[in-house]
Design goal:
By secondary structure, this protein is of the alpha/beta class. The chain has helices spanning 9-14, 27-36, and strands at residues 2-3, 21-24, 41-44. The structure holds S-adenosylmethionine. The site of S-adenosylmethionine has 17 residues, from helix 1.
């Protein structure tokens, strides 16, 4: 799972070896990701309220994403 996946640049690489689900808050960004990486699943969601209904072997949240959480209580340990 790629949290705050943006336009799917990491999914594009990861899909070669993993089944990837990306989540992002911005539907317009997700549309780009879906076009770029049709092999991955992309869903709209807020990382501050994310309730995962599936299990994932790895969850990443990378490249200038954590600072979108402006207060530490927004940070949730999965
Ligand atoms: C700097 S981009 C990084 C995108 C991606 N991780 C990458 O490395 O290419 C930050 C992304 O975080 C998303 N984002 C910001 N706040 C978010 C939130 N609360 N929940 C989910 N995504 C969020 C934005 O829509 C944007 O796509």
């Amino acid at each position: 799972m790629d949290v705050a996946c943006g336009t799917g640049s990491h999914a594009m690489i990861l899909k070669n070896n993993f089944k990837v689900t990306g989540v992002d808050i911005n539907e317009n960004i997700l549309e780009i990701a879906r076009r770029k990486v049709p092999e991955a699943d992309f869903i709209k969601g807020n990382m501050k309220k994310l309730e995962l209904k599936s299990k994932f072997d790895v969850v990443i949240c990378i490249f200038s994403v954590i600072h979108y959480n402006q207060i530490t209580t927004n940070l949730k340990i999965f």
